[in-house]
Specification:
Helix 3 links the parallel strand 4 and strand 5. The longest helix has 18 residues. By secondary structure, the chain is of the alpha+beta class. It starts with 16 loop residues before the first helix and ends with a helix. The chain has 11 helices and 13 strands. The strands form 3 sheets. The chain has a 7-stranded mixed β-sheet with strand order 8-10-7-11-9-12-13, with helices on both faces. Strands 3-6-4-5 form a 4-stranded mixed β-sheet. A two-stranded antiparallel ribbon has the order 1-2. Helix 2 packs parallel to helix 3 and helix 4 crosses helix 5. It binds adenosine-5'-diphosphate (ADP) and magnesium ion.
């Protein structure tokens, strides 16, 4: 569906494993003070001095997490880094290094891996992280990418999922549901393309939501903003599976309840119009659609004046005693229990 602009196809076997690694990693530059030794030895050497180290890993599997018929490899490389950095930022930490491991079948030419790595290099540059290692191996089926992200945080500044208290405000960054609706548009265009391969899709009406799906941005800026505003959230999580499932994680781990107000949930106009077109309820999408990579946090009421009016931060509810349960307060002012229908990688495959 996405046009192949790079028709050259050099088989992977032309290079061999060591040359391939050398070739793919030659554009990585070391910028972090904490990186002592990067790619090229048996292991990387890092020095964080007095900082605490934060580590997170994600695995992306072709056919489960991405579909190469509409995901350009460059975007995939970029997104693989983003989903991991998002977890580091959700700890209120600064991302500093990543490792990237890939398993690839020989149906991929070297040019395809160059594209994938171009996305990785771009992400590393923009987000100021060093790629300090990884592993490369063959796969008998699809492409598998695993990224490990490493970050640092001053002792006591880390924010866990477990610190929310009753009466804390529930705050979300950006807007929700865009990535899911972008995926719906791409899936629809894929079906159209199957019927008529000459039909190049016109996605101009959906640029924002398609970009939210294909090229998400991790909220590094929010960690910096919170520092500037002198706000330390009482709990935080990134929204990878949808608002309802992340709210439930915060509530369960903090032993609190929540009231989320439907009319406060931030939605982009393009999400609203696309939901209307697809005849789906936009609140359902915000609650259950995944992959927005926004941050969801709780802050103490005392901090409200510091965040008030900030366009990046929206108060969508407040935490309650645990025995009050978890509810959505609808526009009609009825209370309905929040249940997780979030995207579940394992269930989807069953
Ligand atoms: P080993 O046999 O010890 O695993 P490798 O030959 O796999 O060593 O790796 C050599 C160096 O290249 C190491 O520094 C490793 O971290 C790095 N490396 C290997 N594959 C990748 C990759 N896909 N991306 C980034 N770095 C890689
Ligand atoms: Mg290796």
């Amino acid at each position: 569906m996405i046009e192949d602009k790079n028709p050259q196809r050099t088989p992977l076997s032309d290079l061999g494993e060591f040359k391939l690694i050398e070739h793919l990693t030659e554009h990585f530059k070391v910028t972090q003070k904490s990186t002592i030794k990067s790619i090229g030895d048996d292991a990387a050497v890092l020095n964080f001095e007095k900082k605490q180290v934060v580590v997170s890993t994600d695995l992306l599997v072709e056919g489960v997490h991405f579909d190469l018929s509409y995901v350009p490899l460059k975007h995939l490389g970029y997104k693989a880094i983003m989903v991991n950095l998002s977890d580091i930022y959700a700890m209120n930490a600064t991302a500093t290094q990543v490792t990237v491991s890939i398993a690839v079948s020989n149906r991929f030419p070297i040019e395809a891996l160059e594209e994938l790595y171009a996305g990785i290099v771009t992400a590393a540059k923009i987000y100021n992280v060093d790629v300090v290692g990884g592993d490369t191996t063959s796969s008998t089926s699809g492409l598998v990418i695993s990224v490990t992200a490493i970050g640092e945080v001053d002792k006591g500044n880390e924010v866990l999922r477990s610190g929310a208290k009753p009466n804390d405000l529930l705050v979300v960054t950006g807007d929700l549901g865009g990535a899911y609706m972008g995926l719906q548009v791409l899936e629809r265009e894929k079906e159209v393309f199957k019927v008529n391969p000459n039909n190049q899709p016109d996605l101009s009406m959906y640029t924002y939501i398609v970009e939210r799906q294909l090229k998400p941005e991790a909220r590094k800026d929010i960690v910096e903003l919170l520092k500037e505003l002198k706000v330390k959230p009482t709990s935080m999580i990134d929204i990878s599976d949808g608002l309802s499932s992340e709210v439930m994680h915060l509530c369960k781990q903090s032993k609190v309840g929540v009231d989320v107000y439907e009319n406060k949930i931030p939605l982009d106009p393009q999400v609203i119009s696309t939901c209307e077109e697809f005849n789906i309820d936009s609140t359902t999408i915000a609650l259950n659609g995944g992959e927005d990579y926004e941050l969801l946090m709780t802050i103490s009421q005392e901090d409200f004046p510091k965040i008030k009016g900030n366009p990046n931060l929206t108060v969508i509810g407040y935490m309650t005693d645990e025995d009050r349960g978890m509810h959505l307060v609808t526009r009609a002012e009825t209370k309905i229990p929040i249940i997780a229908k979030g995207w579940n990688a394992l269930k989807d495959q069953a």
